[in-house]
Amino acid sequence: MTASRGRTGRPPLTEARRTEIRREIARAAVDLFVSQGVTSTTGEQIGRAVGLSARTVWRYFPSKESCVTPLFSEGIDSITAFLREWPPGQSLQEAMDRWLVAETGITGGPDRATVGALVRLTRTEPGLRAVWLQTYDEAEPAFGRALAERAGLPVDDLRVTIRAAMFNAALRAAVEHYAWRGDDERGERTAADTELETTLRQALAVAAEGVA
Questions:
Q1: For residues 113 and 107, what is the distance between their CA atoms, to the nearest angstrom?
Q2: What is 38-81 written as a DSSP string?
């Protein structure tokens, strides 16, 4: 009787590894977009920068512009977590102090400068602009769920819908305001970081007016 053979080949990728690959592709895409423009960048070049084939890149993303989605989404996920963890009765200032000290999301992650460069490109690249706006469009329901839970209201309550839209618009406006004002050295804590924190505080404080 012949023993059955086990499966051969590479083991399946873990979800954590798939996420890291997506981030590697995103960083490579941004570097190429910044250095040579979106039009001149190909899937083959993006894949080569991270040791992958273009075919593999297209397994993860449907277009070269969409390759940057993870860098946009990380900031959105951080804000969603911030809203979810913001306790009723605590001021926005206190909640933001805790969040910013933890250096999460847009203000402290290793991709802060990368995201800044990417947001600047959305001003002149329609394909990237579409991805940027779609990210915020998809984020708004997540903001709504977090705010509804905090306020003890149904997620389809009109007050929740309006507050989520306000936070969404305030966040996008703050990041764009910061990014479009100029560049700073990657990885360094500079006056530009303080400016971003101040801009986020101001924008979210305006959106938080009337939030119990």
A1: 9
A2: STT--HHHHHHHTT--HHHHHHH-SSTGGGGHHHHHHHHHHHHH
**Mean pLDDT of the 76-98 span:** 83
| Mean per-residue pLDDT over the chain, rounded | 83
CATH C-level class of 68-208: mainly alpha
Q: Give just the sign of the alpha carbon dihedral 56, 62, 68, 70.
A: negative
| CA–CA dist 62, 137 (Å, integer) | 18
**Which tokens hold the place of 86?**
């913001």
How far lies 204's CA from each of 103, 168, 171, in Å?
17, 9, 7
| pLDDT of 69 | 93
Is the pLDDT at 11 greater than 50? The verdict is: yes
Residue spans per domain, the chain = 15-64, 68-208
Rounded Cα–Cα distance for residues 39 and 21 (Å)? 23
Kindly report, residue by residue over 131-156, the tens digit of the pLDDT: 999 999 999 999 999 999 988 999 99
Q: Per CATH, which fold does 15-64 belong to?
A: Arc Repressor Mutant, subunit A (1.10.10)
Whether the per-residue pLDDT at 17 is higher than 60: the answer is yes
